[in-house]
Amino acid sequence: MAEETKQPKLPKKLESIITEIEKLTILEAADLVKALQEKFGVTAAAPTVVAPAAVAEEETKKEEKNTYDVILQSAGENKIAVIKVLREIKPDLGLKEAKTLTEEAPKAILEDAKKEEAEEVKKKLEAAGIARMDLLSQINTDIFYL
Length: 146
Known about the structure:
By secondary structure, the chain is of the alpha+beta class. The chain contains six helices and four strands. It folds into two domains: 12-43; 62-145, CATH 3.30.1390.10. A four-stranded antiparallel beta sheet has the order 2-1-3-4, covered by helices on one side.
């Protein structure tokens, strides 16, 4: 060993074993490792640790997506039908606000909606002939292009 680090004092028996191992060639040391593995039924492989990011990713996949945002990307050619559907979905919107929403796309139509509600809105907008819309999950940020 080129550098010696401070290690705790070992019993004389262990120090003599280490001294003998230091005298071995690489091939002899490899044979010793194999023999010890076979004798005691162990492996010299480093223990594997699951990365925390991988664990978190698996947990996220297991979680069901609870809330969605419905984003209007483009109203398409049939803006009048899209405006009617928007006013049906959001009754508080006036004609002017619904028209502005279609013209200023991309805009959020629904935020924090349940999956069933988001799917229903998606179907209504598709029937109206929208050009493009996204459903964004709040847990997993996957974007579904339609």
